[in-house]
Structure formats: C-alpha cells, structure tokens
Design goal:
Blueprint lengths: L8 H9 L17 H9 L10 E6 L6 H13 L22 E6 L7 E8 L13 H8 L34 E7 L7 H17 L3 E6 L1 H4 L1 H5 L8 H14 L6 E3 L11 H31 L1
Helix pairs in contact: 2-9, 4-5
C-alpha cells in the first residue's frame, strides 16, 4: 500500500493554527439548568452530633476569585444576587482579604436561619515568606484553632498566646473540605506559591481532609467559553488548563471544577449556576464523607 502523501509546510501550519479548538463531544457531562442539584444543596444537613455546619475553607493565590466565588455560591443558592464577601476587581498583587471570616447563607428573608454549609475566606497566598497568609495559619485554621475575625499577620503565623487562638476547637470549628481556587487566565503560578500550596496540601492530607480545586474566570480564558459556558467541557483549552493545574498542584482531574463567578451580571444566570452547583454538590458529598470519618474516630476514643 502506497504511503499517504506528506503534508506540505503550509498544510502543517494550517493544521496547527486552524485546528478545531473544541472536541466533537463533551468529555465531561453535567445536567444544565440543574434544579435537582439546587434542591440537593438546599436540603443538605449534617447528621453527626456536635456538627451543625459543613465547613469549606478556600485558599489560593491572590486575585484568584475566592471571595467572588463565595458571593457566587450565595447568589446561586438564594436565587438572587448577593455580595456577603468583600471582593476587589483590582488586587494589585496584594490580598484584599485580611481576616478570617465565616460566611453563612441566609434562608429566605428575615430570621429564618441559615443553610448548614458555610464558607471561610482567608488571606491569599503571595510571593515570598513575608507576604500573604502563612501555611502554618492555614494548618491551624483546618484544625479549628483560628477564631472568627482574626487578622492575619504577614510577619508571622498565629501563636497559642494570641487572643485569636482557639484553644479548644469543636468538631464544628474544624474544616471539612479544603478548596484551592485558581484563575484560568492568570499568569503561571510562581515556584514560591506552588511550594506553599504543596505544604498546605500535605497538611490537609495528614488530617484526612478532602481536597478540591475551583478554576475561575473560564469565560475570559477561551473563545469557546466566551461564546457560551455550555462549551466548557467541549473546550480543549479549558481541559488543558485543568490538566496543567492538576500537574502543578497535584489535585486529581475528577476533583477539579471550572466555574464562572458572577461579576458583570445583575441577574441570576442558569449556566453560571449550573457550574457552581456541580462543584458545590461534590463539596458537600466529600465533606459529608469526612464528617462520617470524624464521627467514627470520636466513637473509637
């Protein structure tokens, strides 16, 4: 059989620069306009004694969109735009969040209580050893030792003599899911920040805390997702970004979720909500499994 003719240089260049940026079929499938997942999230309640809230801790580089993700989650669950977490559109390389704060999600209007999933926001990771949150502070946070409102100090981590140190944390104070937040359109994560992230992941691993990753700003990183968010799992660029982050940080692909935070919108968008709910449902499942393990360990004591 004769060999097929070799492609000319022009043909090879055309193939390189004009190849289809999208897969023919989505490589991950999710249900769009997912009312069932919204109800699942709203109905969730921990069943373990001593735990009233499933606690999700967000960490990541400065400007990744941690606070905006919290606002987007709250907006999705409440069904209207909400901004409980202060967020900045321009961080100038410095963390806008400076204190430890728990964000509760109100049920309806008035005094109807809150949903039992809470998010904790912390100072961002920055370059060098004297900028941003210390990995040691994140370890203390995971164990429940950081009190509400503690102001993070770039000069050094929290000590047990500080008034912001919780000496007797409950199971409810501890973190049940650790979520790394990164931006799809940011510059490459520096070696210094990657080392901090690796240290934090190791601390969470030693405590058995489940870990996930959220990739924000996917609408700005790819022409396919800029057209419509429903192309997210058709986009070759987005999948490659997920692979790159997975390789750099060490979080498996099935624990990585691309999302778009609410930013320019003034009304709720079904496609934005669907991606957020897809990630949020997994956070609840992973966190609930960890709570079960915590209960088993308490019973063994």
């Amino acid at each position: 059989m004769a060999e097929p003719p070799k492609k000319t240089l022009v043909e090879r260049m055309r193939s390189l620069f004009f190849s289809d940026p999208a897969f023919r079929e989505p490589w991950r499938t999710i249900p769009w306009e997912d009312e069932e997942s919204l109800q699942y999230v709203r109905d969730y309640k921990p069943v373990t004694d001593g735990i009233n809230h499933l606690r999700v801790l967000l960490y990541g580089p400065v400007g990744a969109g941690k606070s905006s993700f919290i606002n987007s989650v709250v907006s999705t669950i409440r069904g209207r735009m909400s901004v409980p977490a202060a967020a900045s559109a321009t961080t100038a390389g410095r963390s806008f969040t400076t204190k430890y704060e728990t964000h509760y999600i109100k049920i309806g209007r008035g005094d109807q209580g809150t949903y039992p999933v809470v998010f904790n926001d912390i100072m961002g990771l920055e370059e060098g050893d004297t900028q941003g949150v210390h990995p040691a502070d994140i370890k203390l946070t995971m164990k429940g030792h950081v009190k509400e409102g503690y102001m993070f100090n770039a000069a050094g981590p929290l000590s047990d003599a500080n008034p912001g140190y919780n000496k007797s944390p409950s199971l409810d104070d501890r973190v049940h899911v650790l979520v790394c937040v990164v931006s799809a359109n940011s510059a490459e994560i520096t070696d210094s920040v990657l080392r901090k992230m690796a240290e934090i992941r190791g601390m969470a691993r030693d405590q058995g805390i489940p870990q996930m990753m959220i990739i924000t700003h996917i609408d700005e990183a790819c022409p396919e997702t800029e057209k419509t968010l429903r192309n997210v799992y058709m986009s070759k660029h987005v999948k490659q970004k997920m692979k790159d982050f997975s390789s750099a940080v060490g979080i498996p692909m099935n624990c990585i979720f691309p999302v778009k935070n609410y930013s320019e919108e003034i009304e709720i968008n079904d496609d934005v909500d669907t991606l957020i709910l897809s990630a949020l449902r997994k956070m609840i499942n992973f966190g609930d499994d960890f709570i079960d393990k915590m209960e088993e360990k308490e019973e063994e004591k």
